[in-house]
User: Fold this.
Amino acid sequence: MSQNPVLRRCVSCKKVIDRNQLFKVTRDHQDGVVLTGGMGRSAYICTNETCLKDAWRRKRLQKALKCQVQYNVIEVLQDQLNQSNDSGSKAR
Assistant:
């Protein structure tokens, strides 16, 4: 019996996608906003540039996490997006 995928909603475009295909941003109760791991309130963003820019421009991450998100978090997500795009183009 195959296991059903765990679905999450992108805070920017509102599409429901498998959580392995999304970036996870978490407001941890001790460390603040973290990108990998952590326990607390989480938000998911699609791995495309338009969702990332739209989430920042419309403050969707801040609203979903109910806290201020620094711009350096967006920069790190942008770097991860660029790395995933580079690795995807090298594989072809």
